[in-house]
Specification:
433 residues, mainly beta, Jelly Rolls, Immunoglobulin-like, eight-stranded antiparallel beta sheet, 3 domains
């Protein structure tokens, strides 16, 4: 077996001539032509690859073997004088490369051997450079965008397209857009961009960003304030958001309330549905009669009423739960389940706003104090519990109003989802549960 020779010369037709020296040459009386015993071009290269063939030859007489190399691309010979073939200069995607080798011992030519055709494969694009904006997004306010700052490169010159995928805390997000109302403080959003040239995907590029908490002013002297309502025309207006609508996943609405006086009038805590009609998605309030009864319902759908439950001039934790998984609605007072009703029909989500402290026609006005309003996805309470005096936010929180700003006319949403409300008439107070 012989190694490839290191003496090169140009033979006829610009073929590369490679001399293979044989240290064991001995005189012979008759010559046997040499033969190529191995010809391997390796794996298919990409456009910017290099073909470096492995060639082995032998001569039965022990003569030195000279190899003539002829390259062809797509069936056409090329003028090339190197034993390797560089794609950056010679071939493109889908080109078919063949190398023909003819051995010679100086006396006679051996059989010419052609390599298996080698088809140049596609070059996948490189990874792009991407940017997430804004650089410091505020929870519940700033939507996120992911853009390609530097395009992926493709050695074949193909047009490159990009697929953008988001994930939130490692969980896939279904859309390319991330609305501001979907972001919460502390979340880590990751954008992954995958380039493709239509044949192969290239290397993905990723970037991530952490959502910052929205700056919410708080001037409450003792850190726990509330809003006082005059029982006439004070309320908080919150614009409609799909996230605040009732759904088949269930809903929990809760607040701390202090009724100055129990009287023959309903007093609203939270109501979703503000048009001048009888329909609403959900309504948590003190009922008309008896004066001390609780009401939690959706109309037209279901109603839960608990009679003789409330006391005036006492702080109460009041919660309504819509639990379609158990086909029921429940009302809790101070952490104790008071009554349950079967769901009579499915509630349809609406597009109307939400009010705290008053209903749709400026009736059922709250006469007293409301603090710590929280709206949650799902049935948060399934059994008796000890109420928190200050609510916390978690993955199920849709809106949370601590009502602690003690200044201005904005009821800030501390869920990080940006469902801030406008205070109309209600006054700040240091009263709290």
């Amino acid at each position: 077996m012989l190694g490839i020779g290191l003496m090169l010369a140009c033979g006829q037709d610009n073929a590369l001539v490679v001399f293979v020296e044989n240290d064991t040459a001995t005189p012979t009386t008759s010559n046997t032509p040499p033969q190529v015993t191995r010809l391997d071009l390796g794996s298919a290269p990409t456009t910017d690859g290099v073909i470096a063939p492995v060639i082995e030859a032998s001569d039965a007489d022990g003569d030195d073997v000279r190899l003539e190399l002829r390259w062809s691309i797509n069936g056409m010979p090329i003028d090339h004088t190197s034993e390797t073939l560089d794609g950056s200069a010679w071939f493109d995607r889908d080109d078919i490369i063949v190398l023909t080798v003819t051995p010679s011992d100086g006396l006679s030519l051996g059989e010419s051997i052609a390599s298996e055709p080698l088809t140049v494969r596609n070059s996948p694009p490189t990874a792009p450079e991407i940017v997430i904006a804004p650089e410091a997004p505020e929870a519940g306010i700033d939507g996120l965008s992911c853009t390609v700052a530097v395009d992926a490169e493709d050695a074949d010159g193909d047009t490159v397209t990009h697929t953008i995928d988001w994930s939130r805390d490692g969980v896939a997000w279904p859309d390319e857009a991330v609305p501001g109302e979907e972001t919460r403080a502390g979340e880590v959003w990751t954008c992954t961009v995958l380039p493709s040239d239509g044949t192969d995907s290239g290397e993905a590029a990723s970037a991530w960003i952490t959502i910052e908490d929205s700056p919410i002013p708080a001037a409450c002297p003792d850190g726990n304030c509330a809003l006082r309502f005059d029982g006439v025309d004070d309320y908080v207006e919150v614009a409609h958001a799909d996230a605040l609508s009732i759904s088949t996943d269930g809903l929990t609405v809760e607040a701390w309330v202090y009724f100055d006086v129990l009287k023959g009038n309903c007093m609203t805590v939270v109501r979703k549905g503000t048009s001048e009609s009888a329909s609403f998605e959900y309504w948590l309030h003190k009922n008309w009669a008896p004066e001390d009864s609780l009401y939690w319902g959706s109309w037209p759908a279901w109603t839960v009423v608990d009679f003789e439950a409330l006391s005036q001039q006492v702080w109460h934790h009041y919660a309504g739960v819509y639990d379609p998984d158990h086909d029921e609605a429940r009302v809790y007072l101070d952490g104790e389940e008071r009554t349950t009703a079967m769901l009579s029909s499915t509630v349809e989500a609406g597009t109307e706003g939400l009010r705290i402290g008053i209903d749709w026609d400026l009736g059922c006005a709250m006469d007293g104090v409301i603090d710590e309003v929280r709206i949650s996805l799902g049935a948060r309470y399934t059994e008796d519990f000890i109420p928190q005096t200050t609510f916390s936010t978690d993955a199920d929180t849709l809106a949370l109003y601590h009502l602690d700003a003690y200044t201005g006319t904005t009821a800030y949403d501390h869920s990080g989802l940006g469902h801030h409300g406008t205070i109309i008439g209600a006054q700040w107070t240091t009263e709290s549960p």
